[in-house]
Amino acid sequence: MKAEELLLKHKLRKTGNRLAVLSLFAGHSKAFSHSEIQAKMGSNMDRVTLYRILDAFEKCGILHKIPDDEVSVKYALCDHDHSVEHHHSDDHAHFKCHECGDTICLEDYEIPSLKSPHGFRVDEKFLLLGGVCDQCQ
Amino acid sequence: MKAEELLLKHKLRKTGNRLAVLSLFAGHSKAFSHSEIQAKMGSNMDRVTLYRILDAFEKCGILHKIPDDEVSVKYALCDHDHSVEHHHSDDHAHFKCHECGDTICLEDYEIPSLKSPHGFRVDEKFLLLGGVCDQCQ
DNA sequence: TAGTTAAATGAAACAATGTTGCAAAAATTA
DNA sequence: TAATTTTTGCAACATTGTTTCATTTAACTA
User: Fold this and answer.
1) What is the pTM of this model?
2) What is the pLDDT at residue A74?
3) B65-78: buried (b, 16+ CB within 10 Å) or exposed (e) per residue?
4) What distance in Å separates the CA atoms of residue B92 and residue B108, rounded to the nearest whole number?
5) Dihedrals φ, ψ of B54, to 5°?
């Protein structure tokens, strides 16, 4: 869909900043972090404005968020009783309750091994389930 | 495994700070963020010290990281051609290349619906694959 | 088209998070 | 106990995210 139509459809005003952000995404079929977009925009766009544009786009369904694997993480104890020396988060899922905010390991849920995309080598898998835990129901 | 043994095994010195962190994890079978641990420790432990303890524990396999779903995210364009109004990150996987750092949507890979743990309601699913993409091989 | 209205922006201030370097303190080793 | 190496705390700094408010701009209306 064209950038202008997208904005119109969601009752967002057509501004230079928004069109610039949309054209960045339209030009590459990949995900960008706030700082990556910021860098592409140079000093033309205020940092705060970009936060607001991303929020607005996400709220109305133009963009979606993807959690990153590096920062803002939680830590959980590795399970040393399972006779495995190092257990990474690779091989099991985690569940985060949106009521109490707790995150727990789901030891029993091995992540099904999807066949990887052509030419891609998959080294690790993070599966995070979000919802409401039994305590908070 | 007892805290002291764990430290000894990984050639980490037995200090009050490290024992305190280990006992926190031992007492609850869930994951904690840096700031959560910080709060539990009070002002006894320096912020930087905690960063270093978590790094050390993760490096030697005592703890593992779990990406969180709220902050430090990337944004990707929603796929409006698929006739679905809102496509969230819920229903498909993402792949992050550790060479070039790019993150892409894997539109074709629907996340298999695991049966949720007893009493848990699952509202959303994030599956992030990490590895090396075809370009970087 | 000009004036009005509501949204969007930029700037400043602030809070939270994460990193680095260095000197002091503490834990192991000899 | 003394020597050695690791760990710690502190200061300084960089990055990331939020809030408030005045100004500008886009869309609407007469």
Assistant:
1) 0.81
2) 65
3) bbbbbeebbbbbbb
4) 7
5) -65, -40
> What residues does A95 pair with on adjacent strands?
A104, A129
Q: Which residue of A has its CA nearest to B92?
A: A66
CB contact under 8 A, A88 and B120: no
B17 versus A81: the higher-pLDDT residue is: B17
Chain A positions in Cβ-Cβ contact with residue B95 (cut-off 8 Å): 117, 120, 122
Q: What is the C-alpha to C-alpha distance for residues A117 and A113, in angstroms, rounded to an integer?
A: 12
**More confident site: B27 or A1:** B27
Q: Which of A41, A64, A84 to mutate to test the interface with B (most CBs of B within 10 A)?
A: A64
Q: Locate A41 and state its tokens.
A: 């925009």
Q: Which of A75, A126, A131 sits opposite B63 (nearest CB)?
A: A75
State pLDDT tens for residues B107-118: 777 777 766 677
Strands A121-132 and A63-67: unpaired
Phi, psi of B55 (to 5 degrees): -60, -45
| Contact between A120 and B133 using a beta-carbon 8 Å cutoff | yes
- Which numeric CATH code is attached to B3-131? 1.10.10.10
| Comparison of pLDDT for B21 and B99, the residue scoring more | B21
Residue of chain A with shortest Cα separation from B68: A73
Flag whether pLDDT at A122 surpasses 90. Answer: no
Between CA A128 and CA B90 the distance in angstroms is 10
